[in-house]
Amino acid sequence: MKRLSVKVKPNSKQQQLKVEADGSLTVHLKSPPVEGKANAELIQLLAKHLNVPKSLVRIRTGAAAKQKMIEIDTN
Predict the structure, then answer these.
(1) In the structure, how many helices (H) and strands (E) does the chain have?
(2) Residue 53 to residues 31, 46, 57: CA-CA distances in angstroms?
(3) How many Cβ atoms from other residues are within 10 Å of residue 56's Cβ?
(4) Where are the alpha helices (H) located in the chain, listed in sequence order?
(5) Using CA atoms, how far apart are residues 58 and 42, in angstroms rounded to an integer?
(6) Residue range 10-29, pLDDT digits in tens
(7) How far is the CA of 24 from the CAs of 5, 34, 47, 62, 66, in angstroms?
(8) Residue 69 — left, alpha, or beta (φ > 0 → left; ψ -120 to 50 → alpha)?
(9) How far apart are CA 18 and CA 25, in angstroms?
(10) φ, ψ of residue 53 in degrees (nearest 5)
(11) 3-class DSSP state for residue 60?
């Protein structure tokens, strides 16, 4: 199981994934933070970036916050 600290910036003009100096990620999402749209876009983007199925990526903490802890099942 791999964990990532992610800071999400919804309603951005373009999708972007940036690795910070401390190893955390800042992710710019086009979707608004309404009805789980930004979370769904985040999971899709991380799965594509990490080359894993979406079903292996989940938000462990912070589903309603900008700072999230993501778990990727590597088994």
Answers:
(1) 1, 5
(2) 21, 10, 7
(3) 17
(4) 37-50
(5) 10
(6) 999 999 999 999 988 999 99
(7) 5, 24, 16, 15, 13
(8) beta
(9) 6
(10) -65, 150
(11) strand
Q: Are strands 25-28 and 16-19 parallel, antiparallel or unpaired?
A: antiparallel
Q: What tens digit of pLDDT does each residue of 36-71 get?
A: 999 999 999 999 999 999 999 999 999 999 999 999
Residue 17, token pair as written in the block: 């994934």
- Residues whose CB falls within 8 Å of the CB of residue 21, separated by 6 or more in sequence, listed in order: none
pTM of the model: 0.91
Q: Are 27 and 12 in contact (CB under 8 A)?
A: no
The single-letter code of the amino acid at 68 is: K
Classify residue 7 by its DSSP letter.
E
- Token pair listed for 20: 């910070």
